[in-house]
Amino acid sequence: MENNFHTYRHLDQELSALHQQLVEMGELVQNQLADALRALVQRDPELARQTIERDDGVDRKEVEIDNFCIRLLARYQPAARDLRLITTGLKTTTDLERIGDLAVDICECALPLIAEPPVLPLIDISAMARIAERMVQESLDAFVREDTALAVRLCGDDDEVDALHHQMFRVLLTYMVENPQTISRVIRLLFVAKCLERVADHATNIAEMVVYMVRGKTIRHLAPLPDCLPALSCIG
After folding, report:
1. What's the structural domain count of the chain?
2. pTM (predicted TM-score)
3. One-character DSSP codes across 110-155
């Protein structure tokens, strides 16, 4: 019995360490995304290059956390809530790492855009960026606070980013047709918009995993999601 007590206590300590590592990776990725968007909007090539160079740190953190999760699974064979936390850790690192990659993609688009005259004001991209950044922040807040109500609400916010993405696609496509000399720049802006749409998708994935971690309920692939929100809100 005493050995079991020590085992459970040690597992709790390890799970707390996992929780902290995920928070640290989330902060790292948030900084990457914020810097990528600032480099684009403020036309700062040095910041874009620095952000690209820091991506290795995100990749190392993903590998570190994944290896830690695998060791926990092998050592303790956890069940129920503990197993769900470890599973969430494995899936969340993947989404965070991909957000980091998308920040790099935005920087790689920003560098040639910075070197040329602006195509048009980045109004829609800025709007998309604000929502996508907020979604990443709130998905991590939901994880830290185990706030399923926030996680469920966040899943519905993805539609707003999708709508802005479609709107921007139509505007830029028209602009490109009317001004063929801007094609290369417009294509890069369209790619940035797609990156932001994918960031929102990954934030949604994290939010869905928070619900699974806390309540053991899978809300992925529930469509149309907005219609499901009132029913799902009761699980928070």
Report:
1. 1
2. 0.89
3. HHHHHTS---S--HHHHHHHHHHHHHHHHHHHHHHHT-HHHHHHHH
